[in-house]
Amino acid sequence: MKKFIVETYYTCIFKTVHKLDNLNDNELSKIDSRNDGEVQVIDVKLNNRKTKKIGNKKETSEKIKEPDSLLSANLAKKMDSSKNQDLINNQNLKSKNQTNARFKMPDRRKGYIQKAQIGDHKVYLHTGEYDDGKIGEIFIDTNKEGELVKAMMNNFAIAISLGLQYGVPLEEYVDAFIDTKFEPSGNVLGNDRILSASSILDYVFRELAISYLGKEELAHTPSIASTKDMTDHTTDDKFLKIVKNITSKGFVRSNYEEKLVDLSDVRINLKSKN
């Protein structure tokens, strides 16, 4: 003989579909009394459950804390996946912040100043380098530009410098600004490798590409450095390493061995005199 009764209550969401020949107020007013509609169940949720003992009037009611429905299950899955995605995004953001840290320039740094004239305008290019010779900042000064243009060029150079210090390769800037065209443009005086430029930016990044990247194809004149292979003992020379540490890579256009061979002779001569 059964001793208990369990009553389960559900909340059902459904819709009825009626097909009408005409759509008007009269047809819509009669639609609730029609029994030819097609019933479609949308969702069924467990509401609560009551239990009672047979022969006992006392009832106990148990409310379900979590509805057992497809909708809630899908929602829970979406929330879990969203949390996991947020964790992944936070980890990726932290890793990006760690890898994209800014490498500030040393307080005392190497570099060089290149003066040139494009048309009737004088341009002074200043560079700053890290201890290993990698470029980290630039400054651009002009003499015949208005205050607005000077301020724009100054802030443009600061933006480029920040990009270099955050790890943007110099090649990206070279590819972006080489062959840009605006005035002043024309013949270039004062630079032994560049004879003409289509703009100040074309000249600046052409000069940086030649000096720091060794892109000889962007130069208009051949390099005076010898093309012969240097032996390993030259690059391993202690004196040459010391000079590399105190000499601007851009100033010698990366040709340490060829530019400093005379300095090695001077060192030898000094020793012989002593």
Structure summarized in a few sentences:
This protein is 39% helix and 23% strand.
Characterization of this structure:
The chain is α+β, with helices and mostly antiparallel strands and 274 residues long. It contains 8 helices and 8 strands. It has helices at residues 25-29, 70-99, 147-165, 170-177, 200-213, 232-235, 238-246, 256-273; strands at residues 4-17, 38-53, 59-63, 113-118, 121-129, 135-142, 186-189, 196-197. The chain has a 5-stranded antiparallel beta sheet. Strands 1-2-3 form a 3-stranded antiparallel beta sheet, with no helix packed on it. Helix 4 (170-177) runs antiparallel to helix 5 (200-213) and helix 7 packs across helix 8. The model is unreliable at 62-67, 226-235 and 261-274 (pLDDT under 50).
Protein traits:
single chain, 274 residues, alpha+beta, 3 domains, five-stranded antiparallel β-sheet, three-stranded antiparallel β-sheet, 39% helix, 23% strand, elongated
Q: Strand share of the residues?
A: 15-25%
Structural class: alpha+beta
Count of alpha and pi helical runs? 8
Q: Give the low-confidence spans.
A: 62-67, 226-235, 261-274
Q: Average pLDDT, to the nearest integer? A: 76
Strand order of the largest sheet: 6-5-4-7-8
Main sheet attributes: strand count, strand direction, barrel closure: 5 strands, antiparallel
What is the CA-atom radius of gyration, in angstroms? 39 Å
Approximate helicity band: 25-40%
